[in-house]
């Protein structure tokens, strides 16, 4: 009886592995199709004929007092006595669409004006990571 159960479990496991392989292949095929030249989405950057040449201004809002509102006093588990300032919050990109970018900023405790700024953004198609360094 035990051998019958073991054999059944082995057969089901093999069937599961074969099915997983088929599903993985379908997923890879789907992902590749998004990047292929024949993809139905290959024209997503085309300009529509209804588009105008009007200037679209950048969203700029007052920033008075926002730094102090975003300042973090301490993170959970953070040891006491750290000597740097840290901030976290959202930067509004498009208020009409409700779009904002999350940020976490740590200021260097020494010579912060001479240190490079590192901006790390996650998101977009297939969750790409974008890294920007300014000095």
Automatic annotation (TrEMBL):
Which Gene Ontology molecular-function terms are recorded? serine-type carboxypeptidase activity
* SUPFAM superfamilies the record matches: alpha/beta-Hydrolases
Q: Which GO terms describe its biological process?
A: proteolysis
Q: Which domain of life is it from?
A: Eukaryota
> What EC numbers are recorded for this enzyme?
3.4.16.6
- Looking at the keywords, is Transcription present? no
**Coiled-coil region(s):** none
Q: What residue stretch is flagged as signal peptide?
A: 1-20
Give the InterPro entries listed for this entry: AB_hydrolase_fold, Peptidase_S10
What's the protein here called? Carboxypeptidase D
Keywords attached to this entry = Carboxypeptidase, Hydrolase, Protease, Signal
Q: Give yes or no: UniProt keyword Protease.
A: yes
Would you identify the family this protein belongs to, as annotated?
A: Belongs to the peptidase S10 family.
């Amino acid at each position: 009886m035990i051998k019958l159960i073991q054999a059944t479990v082995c057969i089901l496991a093999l069937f599961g592995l074969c099915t997983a392989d088929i599903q993985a292949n379908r997923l890879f095929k789907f992902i590749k199709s998004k990047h292929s030249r024949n993809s139905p989405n290959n024209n997503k950057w085309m300009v529509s004929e209804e588009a105008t040449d009007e200037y679209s201004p950048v969203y700029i809002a007052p920033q008075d007092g926002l730094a102090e509102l975003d300042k973090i006093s301490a993170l959970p588990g953070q040891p006491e006595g750290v000597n740097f300032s840290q901030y976290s919050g959202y930067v509004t990109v498009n208020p009409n669409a409700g779009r904002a970018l999350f940020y976490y900023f740590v200021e260097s405790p020494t010579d912060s004006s001479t240190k490079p700024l590192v901006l790390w953004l996650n998101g977009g198609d297939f969750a790409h990571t974008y890294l920007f360094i300014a000095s």
